[in-house]
Design brief:
The protein is mainly beta. The protein contains one helix and nine strands, in the order αβββββββββ. The chain starts with a helix and ends with a strand.
C-alpha cells in the first residue's frame, strides 16, 4: 500500500512537471512599445493695429503692439470727435481657440466723463489660421457743453482665449 501511494505521488509530481513544461511551451511574451507626439501648436496673438477712423482735427497717435498688448494715445479735439482702432487677433497655431472672457475697464474713478469707449468684437470662435478683429472706439461725447476739468480716460482690457 505504501509502495502504491509512493507510485501515485510520484506519478502526480511527474504529471505536474510535464504540465508546467507543456504550459511554458505554449506561452508567449508580448512586448508593446509606443510613442505619442504632440503636433498641435498654440498661437493666439495680436498681429496688427490699424487706425480705422479719425475725426478731422484729432490725433490718433502711433499705436504700438506686441503679441499680447496694444497701446494707443488718442487725442480728441471737440465734442462729437471719434477715433476707431482695429486690432487684428490671429490664431497662428493649429489648435482652435474659443473666447472665454473679455473685460474692459474704463477708469471711471479718475477719468473724464466726457469720453466714452466702445468695444466691438472679437469673434468667439477662432480656428487655427484664422483672424478676428476687435474694434476700440474712443469718443468725445457730443452733448458735452464745457471743456471737462479731467481731460483723459484710460481703458484697460483683457481678452482670454483657450484651446477648444
Amino acid at each position: 500500500m505504501k509502495k502504491k501511494k509512493n507510485i501515485i505521488i510520484s506519478a502526480l509530481i511527474i504529471a505536474i512537471l510535464l504540465m508546467a513544461v507543456g504550459y511554458s511551451s505554449f506561452t508567449s511574451e508580448l512586448t508593446i512599445n509606443g510613442n505619442a507626439t504632440v503636433t498641435g501648436e498654440w498661437g493666439v496673438k495680436i498681429t496688427k493695429v490699424d487706425i480705422d477712423f479719425v475725426s478731422e482735427g484729432c490725433d490718433p497717435g502711433y499705436p504700438t503692439f506686441t503679441n499680447t498688448t496694444v497701446n494707443f494715445d488718442a487725442k480728441l479735439e471737440k465734442p462729437g470727435d471719434k477715433i476707431n482702432y482695429l486690432i487684428t487677433i490671429e490664431n497662428t497655431g493649429t489648435i482652435d481657440a474659443t473666447l472665454v472672457s473679455m473685460a474692459f475697464i474704463p477708469d471711471d474713478m479718475n477719468g473724464s466723463s466726457a469720453i466714452q469707449y466702445e468695444i466691438i468684437g472679437p469673434d468667439k470662435e477662432l480656428p487655427g489660421g484664422a483672424t478676428t478683429t476687435l474694434e476700440v472706439a474712443a469718443t468725445y461725447l457730443k452733448d458735452v457743453t464745457e471743456v471737462p476739468e479731467i481731460k483723459s480716460k484710460t481703458i484697460m482690457g483683457i481678452i482670454e482665449y483657450e484651446q477648444k
